[in-house]
Amino acid sequence: MNIVTIGGYGFDESGFFQALTDAKVELFVDIRQRRGLRGSRYAFLNSRRLQEKLKALGVRYVHRRELAPTTEVRDVQKKADAASGELKRSREQLSPAFVDAYKQRILAKFDPAAFVSSLGRVSTVALFCVERSPLACHRSIVAACLEDYPGVEGVRHLCPERKFER
Hints:
Order of helices and strands: EHEHEHHHEHEE
Strand order of the largest sheet: 3-2-4-1-5-6
Number of domains: 1
Shape: globular
Strand content: 15-25%
CATH topology: Cobalt-precorrin-4 Transmethylase, domain 1
CATH superfamily: Tetrapyrrole methylase, N-terminal domain
Largest sheet: 6 strands, mixed
CATH architecture: 3-Layer(aba) Sandwich
Radius of gyration: 15 Å
């Protein structure tokens, strides 16, 4: 199984779905807590529209809310962003405090074997959240946790400015 990660910010609708198609994604795993976005620019990422488009492309969709950071964990990053004067959409990397909180409160309960087994037989899985940079998003933490798991051949990050990033 190959794992790709993708965020929504920075993509337009056609570029987003083309990136998934080019990566041959068969299963789309939404790991957001809230599955809606405000505004028309990213309306294609709202759950209902997203699921309809993925279905039309033959891509299965699952929501795995248990991998989403809780409000409490997200608040750790908000505090770090406020202290550094950084805006969420321009952040390039998660704070060490967020990474620690996410690992302790979310990944401590995560069973990679059960997760991989629950996905079924697929060759390429996409982990999705909204941040542009994979290093600014919890999806990179989940991907790193799975990268060395038996049966996982590798992890790639789909980014708007470049097709694949290691």
